[in-house]
Every structure is written in C-alpha cells, then in structure tokens.
Design brief:
Helices cover about 40% and strands about 0% of the residues. The longest helix has 17 residues.
Length: about 170
C-alpha cells in the first residue's frame, strides 16, 4: 500500500531523517536575509521561514500547528533564534501577507491562465450548446396550468361552485 506521504495530499513524514532536515529545511543566507527584511520579530521570522521551506518541499502551506516539532527546532537552531521561540501569527492578515511573499519568492502566480490567451478567455470560447429540447415560455406555462385555476397560477379559490354533497 502506498504511504500517505506519497499521495496527492502532501503531508510531513512521521519520521524525518537528519539528512532530509539538512537537505530540505536548511535556509540559505539569501532566504534568511529575505525573511529578516520582511519580518519584525523572531516569531514571525521563524513562521515565515517554515512556510517558505514547507512550500518548497510540499507545494502547499501547512498549518503551523501541523509542522513537526523536530522541523521547527531544526529551523530555529539554524537561524540561531532564542530557545523556546514558537512560530506564531497574532493576526490572520499577517499570515496571508506572508503566504503572498512566499509565492512571490518561489515564483508562483495565484492567477490561473484561461483558454484563448485573453484574461477573460471570452475570445476563444464557443457559445454553450443546449442539450435538451428548447421549451418556450408558453409551453412551460401549459405544462403546469390546470383548467379552473386563475391566470396567476393559484389553485381555484372557494368562490368556484362546488358540489354540495358527494353523489
């Protein structure tokens, strides 16, 4: 059976070797300088670096709570942050801004290309083909209208003559 780490839904491995930590989660000097320029505190620096390295490794942004403790400690030691520094965002707005920075750094665009080359894609699209029979509005009316009903489509009112007793 295929392990969960090799499926279409990327996740962190349960056991990450020291070689994998150094290979995938060691920030370069350039990445460290970029992250230090973009943040104002140790928690945000650690969180941004974790988001960057996780995105480079998995192609998605995991929740910071989902990042394994050994990865957090490894990156914290690599950057030489104080002991006990946790990757925290006090506001969701900051996390959203950091995700945009990471996408820009990696070179990923969030806009999807549409067919035809135009931004709206309308020049290449053909009109949608109707697959069912065309029904005019009058035939729709006739389908549910019943004799004895008023023109507005409501059931007959009590004003209509009724039979007084069943025969």
């Amino acid at each position: 059976m295929t392990s969960i780490e090799r499926t279409a839904y990327p996740r962190f491995k349960r056991l990450i070797t020291a070689h994998e930590l150094y290979l995938f989660f060691s920030p370069t000097r350039d990445e460290l300088q970029w992250a230090a320029d973009a943040t104002d505190g140790d928690e945000h620096l650690l969180a941004l670096l974790l988001m960057l390295k996780s995105y480079q490794r998995m192609g998605c942004f995991p929740a910071l709570e989902g990042v394994p403790e050994q990865v957090v400690e490894f990156v914290r030691r690599q950057v030489e942050l104080p002991e006990g520094t946790l990757p925290l965002y006090r506001a969701e707005r900051t996390a959203k801004h950091h995700r945009g920075l990471v996408r820009k750094k990696v070179g990923v665009s969030t806009t999807r290309a549409r067919p035809g080359g135009s931004p709206s894609g309308r020049s290449a699209r053909r009109p949608r083909r109707r697959t069912g029979p065309r029904i005019s509005s009058t035939s729709r009316w006739r389908r549910w209208w019943r004799p004895g009903w008023s023109c507005r489509g409501s059931p007959p009112s009590t004003r209509w003559p009724r039979r007084s007793a069943p025969r």
